[in-house]
Amino acid sequence: MDLADRLVGLERDRSPRARDALKLADRWAKAAGGGKGETVEPGLLLAEAFPERIAKARGKTGELLLASGRGAVLDATDHLARESWLAVAELGGGEARDRVRLAAALDGTRIEADLGRLIEIEDRLVKEPSGRMVIRRARRIGALVLDEKVIGAPDAKTMTAALRAEIEAEGLGALRWGEQATGLRARLAFLHGLDAGWPDVSDAALLEARADWLWPVLEGAKSLETISDGRLAEALRGLVPWDLQRKLDELAPSRLDTPLGSAGIDYGAEGGPRVEIRVQELFGVVTHPTVGGGRVPLTLSLLSPARRPVQVTKDLPGFWAGSWAAVRSDMRGRYPRHPWPENPAEAQPTNRVKPRGT
Fold this sequence. Notes:
The protein is α+β, with helices and mostly antiparallel strands. The protein is built from 13 helices and 15 strands. β10 and β11 form a beta hairpin.
């Protein structure tokens, strides 16, 4: 119900009770420094008396947010439901939210002039969809935002503190791990599994050591998204003791050298370090490749010319001597223009097809 309608009804009421109420109100006005002849909007008086009940329309017609942060609802057929701002005099418990029983309209264009003392200014560091950090200034009355705008970028100290807080809240997943950093981390995890002298690069360990390797990376960064994959890899490499730095590529090379070039090693693969390579590129190889100083055989996923798996093995010589014959028979039928020697251990590696007519 609209408080303004009630007040009009009170003015028209000639009953002794109504007259007594008006006289009492007049005495209170004089005590407060006002008097007859002064007209103040009822909504403004309510807002001054109960600022936590100032309400702003949101969502569907009749849905409100109070300055206190609570939600409230007004019957959608009530003419006050079309107002953008209200001052609520009486609330009643609803099934899911408070229900407005008595309120008065507030002139939204007059809020700053009439209720300026209630307006608070709040500066917040906000991450935009682009990942850029900016300072947004909001003017609000409690939970109700009057307006909000970007006022600039944070200084370097504030930015670094914000990026640290983002890591503390979201963990290492907030960083953009690319192929280089992810690959190095997998290699270090593999070596740590062989020898505890290598750094532990699990999430828990890296977060515990964040001040040593990650905090320096955040200095000068504009957002976590701008920290490059290479910079992360460089920081991780800095965790490796000096005496082990030169052994990293020796014990856990990023690529396997082959007769025709090289192939990437996936140290994060299930079952241990793994290489996917066309089987024909390993013709002539008679020793199974290893990493970890010869301690760990690579898992070889051998592929057809169309790069479809034909065999997975940790014993290449055993494969040549055993199940190769069945694979060869199948491959000759599928890819007749490719060479499929009876003894691949003595054949020349290739990634070419046979000339036509041969």
